[in-house]
Design a protein that fits this description.
Layout: H1 22-29, E1 65-75, E2 80-90, E3 97-103, H2 129-137, E4 146-152, E5 160-163, E6 166-175, E7 180-190, H3 194-197, E8 202-206, E9 211-216, E10 222-223, E11 226-227, E12 231-232, E13 248-257, E14 261-264, E15 267-268, H4 271-274, H5 277-286, E16 294-297, H6 299-305, E17 313-323, E18 328-331, E19 335-343, E20 346-354, H7 361-380, E21 388-393, E22 399-401, E23 404-407, H8 419-434, H9 450-465, H10 493-496, H11 516-535, H12 538-551, H13 559-568, H14 575-582, E24 591-601, H15 606-615, E25 627-630, H16 648-657, H17 660-663, E26 671-678, E27 687-693, E28 698-703, E29 714-721, E30 725-730, E31 745-746, H18 755-760, E32 762-763
Parallel strand pairs: 1-13, 20-21, 21-23, 24-32
Antiparallel strand pairs: 1-2, 2-7, 3-6, 3-10, 4-7, 5-6, 8-9, 9-18, 11-12, 13-17, 14-18, 15-17, 16-19, 19-20, 22-23, 24-25, 24-26, 26-29, 27-28, 27-30, 30-31
């Protein structure tokens, strides 16, 4: 509310304020600091030479490197994949390593995997037929790694032991700081049907033509992360916690049937050998086409390829530098299109691969959405550093890897589709392409902190979705306002209001939460959106967020690095926010408890007299004070008088003590209101209020979150005004995730039609 320099400065208050609840008093007596605004010293580790107090990498920061050279063959007829890989591992840490840990994620699919027995939910009240068959009638699928050998550089066997999804390789000679070691692993496994057997990769069979579409990932033994935070990150893969991986360089040759179309992480090295002349011509055109996709393989060509099942083989050769993983997709069913996107001073290829079953939806939308996502994410973080980004159509899957992702969204058989399918497909493409930034480049530990990639990425996804159509308005855009399903504050309130027994803090391992989607995606995305829109403001937030992204580009950040950077780059103290939103399951519920009206008096009223007596204050020590007294504390006839009449004393006081020139600079309020805000919820948040006046105007006031710093239960704001307040609304735009809005209005909404009842809610 605009107060200017009102007569408030003339009014002296004797405020005796109990800032803590009895519970807080008791805890305070035990020397326990429970203030919501205390710093996160207990939760955070001590800054050091590896990670600084500002949230930036320290002068001693290091990270390991793992380089891979692989020969892969996919056996389409038998649905198997074979690999022979050589890993060169460089120890950049100051530590001496006696052994190495390698991840065998496919072992989660072994028929005797412990992951099959970790749920203790008992019988379900109902089962879908497919689920019942899989659970009770089918033989478990055996998809784990079959390790044929592990050899050193001299082809001598290395001692190793497999513990579920982790393999420890014992080094005959300890690996000193700065040294490298190379070793080879030969392996194979059965590829799963990801449509019917779940999983993040696998194949789909198309019954009508007998072909399969393969999306292959987590398919090779991969080095675990070693750093100063975890040591070896060798937490088992149980199915939900994704992947922690070091950066490295990849040289990969993939052999598939000769009639397959294939793309993968990295730059294709033998394009002339695997492309036809017509494909090369189209590819060269696509590299110079910025306004729409160019078909590399048309639908007619893909449909023709579906008819034959070549027994011949073809090898595709890819090289990727400074990536944390590798994945590929292959099928003879693929339609393939591309277009160029200008990112900074370089061109990036936006690419889509999809079977005819994905059309017309995929041909119309996929590659353009890839291009727009590349632009928006680059604007808010850093320019996309790789040469391409691929969107692959895969039924029921949304999953990400460097430069390539797998995305759901399939039309009906006749090619029709609903808005739900369309927007779902567009949203998942934005999300999975966005994962190139988080965690493929800003490389956090997904195994431990799912929210750092899923939540942060979902937040940027929301920002990107709201900008869709801006870069290519002449195509099938612009879309109407995109119906994002995560990001806005009101979308998380249902989750935050459920039984606390079924909630876990965001700062929990993804295996240990009841609802991973809301916990790792929705709630952190909402938290960041609230930070941007309500707490920090876009300018401060965007600068801090870009600072974090650039600081940890191609590095391994921890949650603390993110929290600290956001504060360091903005000068906004957010410890209260991180603690409440990320370390607890508290919720937001702020309400209007009561509204009081006051008048001006030269004599102390009932409450003031009681206070004077309690404090032993002589009457003569209070002159010449001006008192504000609640209408309830005086005679009834005061309620019937004009508020200005009740302030005659104040007018007389002004005339007696100020010159005419001074009086012209003063404003005399007609009304004094005291608004009492209470907080049934555990989270502190700013108080955003709309004051509605009798003349029909509305004024919005935002009280900073620090208003709660001395009282976690309720706070009071004195509001002097020249106009009568007839209505008050809290959080009018639903931007704080308040789970209960029934206490957010005065008078209560159900009373608005009864004006007499309405007036009676003002005390006096």
């Amino acid at each position: 509310m605009t107060h200017k320099k009102t007569i408030s400065f003339l009014i002296t208050f004797l405020i005796f304020f109990n800032g803590f609840s009895q519970e807080a008093k008791d805890r305070n007596q035990e020397n326990i600091n429970v203030n919501k605004f205390r710093q996160l010293y207990q939760e955070f580790s001590t800054p050091n030479m590896y990670r600084t107090a500002s949230g930036a990498p320290g002068p001693a920061y290091y990270q390991q490197q793992a380089d891979y050279k692989m020969d892969i063959e996919l056996d389409d007829e038998n649905k198997k994949i074979y690999g022979n890989e050589t890993i060169t591992y460089k120890n950049n840490s100051p530590d001496v390593l006696d052994y190495l840990w390698v991840q065998l994620d496919q072992n989660v699919r072994k028929k005797d995997s412990p992951s099959l027995e970790i749920n203790g939910n008992g019988a379900s009240p109902y089962y879908l037929p497919s689920g019942f068959t899989k659970e009770f009638l089918s033989e478990p699928f055996d998809g784990g790694f079959n390790i044929e050998y592990v050899l050193d550089e001299n082809k001598k066997p290395l001692k190793y032991i497999v513990n579920q999804t982790m393999m420890r390789i014992d080094l005959p000679t300890p690996l000193k700081s700065g040294e490298s070691v190379s070793f080879s692993i030969k392996w194979w496994y059965n590829i799963q049907d990801h449509v019917n057997q779940d999983g993040r990769s696998g194949y789909e069979t198309f019954e009508k033509d007998g072909n399969r579409l393969y999306i292959i990932a987590q398919f090779f033994p991969r080095m675990a992360v070693y750093n100063e935070v975890e040591g070896w990150q060798n937490y088992q893969f149980w199915g939900d916690g994704e992947f922690a991986l070091p950066f490295g360089n990849y040289d990969v040759k993939i052999t598939v049937p000769s009639d397959h179309i294939l793309d993968a992480t990295g730059e294709l090295q033998n394009r002339k050998n695997v492309f036809s002349k017509e494909m090369l011509k189209r590819f060269n055109k696509a590299k110079k086409t910025y306004d729409k996709p160019v078909m590399i393989v048309t639908q007619a060509e893909a449909e023709e390829a579906e008819k034959g099942f070549s027994k011949k083989k073809k090898t595709w050769h890819f090289v990727a530098e400074n990536v944390r993983d590798f994945a590929f997709a292959t099928s003879r069913k693929f339609i393939w299109d591309m277009m160029a996107v200008k990112i900074g001073n370089k061109d990036v290829m936006a690419v889509s691969m999809y079977p005819k079953e994905g059309n017309p939806l995929w041909e119309d939308y996929s590659t353009v959405v890839v291009a727009e996502t590349l632009k928006t994410y680059s604007d808010y973080t850093f320019d996309y550093p790789y040469h391409k980004a691929i969107s692959v159509h895969a039924k029921q899957i949304g999953m990400e890897y460097p430069m390539i992702c797998f995305n759901f969204g399939r039309p009906n058989i006749d090619g029709s589709y609903s808005d739900r399918v369309k927007f779902g497909m567009i949203g998942v493409i934005v999300h999975e392409i966005g994962h190139n930034w988080f965690p493929m480049i800003v490389n956090n530990d997904e195994r431990q902190w799912a929210w750092m990639d899923e939540g942060i990425n979902t937040f940027v996804q929301y920002v990107a979705e709201q900008k869709l159509g801006e870069d290519f308005p002449d195509m099938i855009y612009p879309l109407e306002k995109f119906p994002s399903d995560r990001g806005p504050a009101e979308m998380i309130t249902n989750y935050m209001s459920v039984d606390q027994n079924f909630l876990a803090p965001i700062m929990s391992n993804p295996e240990n939460v009841y609802s991973l989607g809301p916990n790792a995606y929705g709630k952190p995305a909402t938290a960041l959106n609230i930070l941007r829109e309500t707490i920090m403001g876009r300018e401060l937030f965007d600068h801090a967020f870009k600072t974090y992204s650039k600081r940890w580009k191609f590095k391994h950040p921890s949650p603390e690095d993110f929290f600290r950077t956001m504060e360091d780059a903005s000068a906004v103290d957010l410890d209260w926010f991180w603690r409440g939103w990320f370390y607890t399951t508290d919720y937001v519920d702020i309400g209007i408890k009561e509204v009081n009206q006051y008048f001006v008096s030269s004599e102390p009223g009932v409450k003031m007299k009681e206070l004077m007596e309690e404090q032993g204050i002589p009457r003569n020590r209070l002159r010449p004070l001006v008192f504000l007294e609640n209408f309830d504390n005086d005679t009834e006839n005061l309620k019937e008088n004009d508020p200005l009449e009740n302030s005659k004393l104040l007018n007389n006081y002004i005339k007696e003590n100020f010159s005419e020139s001074e009086i012209t600079n003063l404003q005399v309020p007609k009304y004094f209101y005291e608004i009492v805000f209470d907080k049934p919820g555990g989270l502190v948040m700013p108080i955003i209020v709309d004051y509605e006046y009798e003349d029909g105007t509305i004024e919005r006031v935002k009280y900073p979150v620090q208003i709660w710093r001395k009282n976690d239960k309720e706070v009071r704001k004195l509001v002097p005004s020249n106009k009568k307040i007839i209505g008050i609304s809290l959080d009018p735009d639903l931007e704080t995730a308040d789970i209960d809005t029934s206490n957010n209005s005065w008078p209560k909404k159900q009373d608005e039609s009864d004006f007499d009842k309405f007036k009676s809610q003002v005390k006096g």
